């Protein structure tokens, strides 16, 4: 039997809480260490798993008892920690976006090539089973050439409890970096990767939340495919009203009670930065994962619609709706594997050498970051921005 990949986890916040069930479910992964600045989280994790838990990521990366590092720390720390892990001979699985600047991302791509080690960027919502199922339909050719892709997402992102860094665009904060990266990954994955140019406008509509809370993006692919990505995190209309009240992780999302309308905005109104940080810490508390991590229904990252010459595709609560020339067909999908399971599978395959054509590698992460930065630049200059670092799927 092949030895499992011994993984160390840097950061024990929300992303790790979501990823842990997938790590635990995969026999090829062994949780072997962790690192966090929080003494409370260190103690809880050590008691649960009985593994070394360090105070910082550098100690973790230098620990000989791991083969790989899962980096789920704030975005502004990613570049330094990826380089450190690679310098220590460790494979890397890093949360999106993998860096904040193109220079940082290019350096990661080069370091990964030189080291021969794996760098996978995820979780991103292109791993969602419905998105992968849409890709299978497109690849089959049954609806003809793909012509348009749209992903629109309205929710309360900007008014969920945030750290100062999450509201600082220069540190990778705001919806374009944090949520647009999901949208652009979905669109690039379905469209084949090769985006030619971006034209966009971003919005900063609340001076108390000084970062991008919205964007409207038009993407043109090299082959003429057109796509739009619209995001609004200002907690008024929620796209879940158009997706059967289903949200990002497959659970119930819509605020149907009038008393709950705008609750995220109302909760933060007038509270201090310290009080918001307390809410943030409570929301990201370490929790022991349950054995059953199946979603209730298929996850919806907003509303995704794909158009081909001979039909359209969108999600349904249990799978896909395919609108062909002749009929409307519903395809039912299994709830498992989940998106996080698929992240882990891709990482394991890449590290073990079973898959030499990994999709979400460092070069893919660079290309996705380039779109995020082009959106910000296009909005600033109010003109089209041509891209240089795109890679095909």
Automatic annotation (TrEMBL):
Domain of life: Bacteria
Annotated Gfo/Idh/MocA-like oxidoreductase N-terminal domain residues: 5-123
Residue ranges, annotated region (Disordered): 272-292
Ranges of residues in domain GFO/IDH/MocA-like oxidoreductase: 132-235
InterPro entries: Gfo/Idh/MocA-like_OxRdtase_N (IPR000683), Gfo/Idh/MocA_Oxidoreductases (IPR051450), GFO_IDH_MocA-like_dom (IPR055170), NAD(P)-bd_dom_sf (IPR036291)
The protein's name in its UniProt record: Gfo/Idh/MocA family oxidoreductase
Taxonomic source organism: Alicyclobacillus fastidiosus
């Amino acid at each position: 039997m092949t030895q499992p990949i011994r993984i160390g986890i840097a950061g024990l916040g929300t992303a790790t809480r979501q990823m842990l069930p997938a790590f635990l479910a995969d026999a090829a992964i062994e949780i072997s260490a962790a690192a966090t600045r929080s003494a409370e989280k260190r103690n809880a994790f050590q008691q649960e798993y009985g593994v070394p838990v360090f105070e910082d990521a550098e100690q973790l990366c230098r620990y000989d008892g791991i083969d790989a590092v899962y980096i789920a720390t704030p975005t502004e720390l990613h570049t330094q920690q990826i380089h450190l892990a690679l310098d220590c001979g460790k494979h890397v699985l890093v949360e999106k976006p993998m860096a904040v600047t193109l220079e940082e991302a290019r350096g990661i791509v080069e370091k990964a090539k030189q080291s021969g080690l794996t760098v996978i960027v995820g979780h991103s919502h292109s791993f969602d089973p419905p998105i992968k199922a849409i890709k299978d339909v497109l690849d089959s050719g049954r609806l003809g050439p793909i012509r348009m892709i749209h992903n629109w997402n309205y929710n309360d992102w900007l008014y969920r409890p945030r750290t100062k860094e999450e509201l600082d665009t220069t540190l990778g904060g705001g919806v374009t970096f944090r949520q647009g990266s999901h949208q652009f990954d979905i669109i690039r994955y379905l469209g084949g990767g090769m985006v030619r140019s971006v034209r966009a406008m971003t919005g900063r509509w609340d001076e108390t939340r000084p970062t991008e809370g919205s964007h409207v993006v038009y993407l043109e692919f090299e082959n003429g495919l057109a796509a739009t990505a619209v995001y609004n995190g200002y907690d008024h209309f929620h796209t879940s009203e158009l997706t059967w009240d289903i949200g990002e992780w497959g659970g119930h999302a819509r605020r149907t009670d009038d008393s709950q309308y705008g609750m995220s905005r109302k909760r933060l109104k007038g509270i201090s930065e310290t009080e918001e940080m307390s809410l943030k810490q409570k929301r990201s508390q370490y929790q022991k994962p349950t054995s059953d991590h199946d979603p209730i229904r298929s996850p919806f990252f907003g509303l995704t619609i794909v158009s081909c010459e001979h039909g359209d595709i969108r999600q349904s609560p249990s799978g896909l709706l395919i609108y062909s020339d002749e009929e409307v067909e519903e395809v039912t999908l299994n709830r498992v594997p989940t998106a996080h399971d698929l992240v882990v599978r891709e990482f394991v395959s890449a590290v073990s050498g079973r898959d030499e054509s990994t999709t979400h590698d460092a070069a893919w992460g660079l290309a996705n970051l380039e779109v995020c930065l082009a959106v910000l630049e296009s909005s600033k200059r109010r003109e089209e921005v041509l891209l240089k670092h795109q890679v095909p799927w």
